[in-house]
């Protein structure tokens, strides 16, 4: 699992660098529009495809670090075995969801290559197949991440794994409601 986590971290760093380059592109495009009345061709298409790529590149590390959106409303009221059972269900559902997305997205990625699918007209054409294959790959990697976290959970990892520890959310303390103080 060390190698998987290293790849997930590398993908996260790649996405952060990509965001930085997109910020520079946006600044250059705005300056080009404002100062020279000439925008950078293809900026819209590049941004359109990049948002998807950046989002999905961050997905595997979010799974490994326990940063995926979750609520502990039910989990807080279960015992240790019930909490583990609920986590196992969540890991399995996450793996199934991202495996299904990868499987369903593969035909359209292959079709994009076969047809030479692109976005944009005129001077700038952005091929869509790299982002489509990135979506397939990162979703498959996220499914693998869910399975890896499931296995680690079943083995009873106690902070000795390579995974960053997901900190439990503290239970809210009950305050009596008095007057206008509703906090």
Automatic annotation (TrEMBL):
Name of the protein in its database record: TRAP transporter small permease protein
Domain of life: Bacteria
Region (Disordered): 162-183
Entry similarity comment: Belongs to the TRAP transporter small permease family.
Quaternary structure (record): The complex comprises the extracytoplasmic solute receptor protein and the two transmembrane proteins.
Biological process terms in GO annotation: C4-dicarboxylate transport
Transmembrane segments: 7-26, 46-64, 85-106, 126-151
Membrane-topology annotation of the record: Multi-pass membrane protein
A single GO molecular function term of this UniProt record: transmembrane transporter activity
Record carries keyword Membrane: yes
Cellular localization per UniProt: Cell inner membrane
Pfam families in UniProt: DctQ
Keyword Oxidoreductase assigned: no
UniProt entry keywords in alphabetical sequence: Cell inner membrane, Cell membrane, Membrane, Transmembrane, Transmembrane helix, Transport
């Amino acid at each position: 699992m060390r190698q998987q986590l290293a790849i997930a971290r590398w993908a996260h760093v790649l996405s952060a660098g990509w965001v930085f380059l997109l910020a520079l592109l946006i600044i250059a495009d705005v300056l080009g529009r404002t100062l020279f009345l000439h925008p950078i061709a293809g900026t819209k298409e590049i941004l359109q495809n990049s948002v998807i790529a950046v989002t999905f590149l961050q997905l595997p590390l979010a799974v490994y670090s326990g940063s995926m959106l979750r609520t502990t409303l039910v989990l807080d009221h279960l015992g240790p075995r019930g909490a583990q059972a609920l986590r196992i269900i969540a890991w399995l559902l996450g793996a199934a969801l991202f495996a299904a997305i990868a499987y369903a997205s593969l035909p359209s990625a292959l079709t994009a290559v076969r047809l030479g699918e692109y976005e944009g007209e005129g001077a700038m054409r952005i091929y869509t197949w790299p982002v489509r294959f990135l979506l397939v790959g990162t979703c498959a990697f996220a499914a693998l991440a869910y399975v890896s976290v499931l296995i680690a959970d079943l083995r009873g990892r106690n902070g000795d794994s390579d995974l960053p520890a997901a900190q439990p959310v503290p239970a809210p303390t009950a305050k009596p409601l008095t007057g206008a103080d509703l906090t």
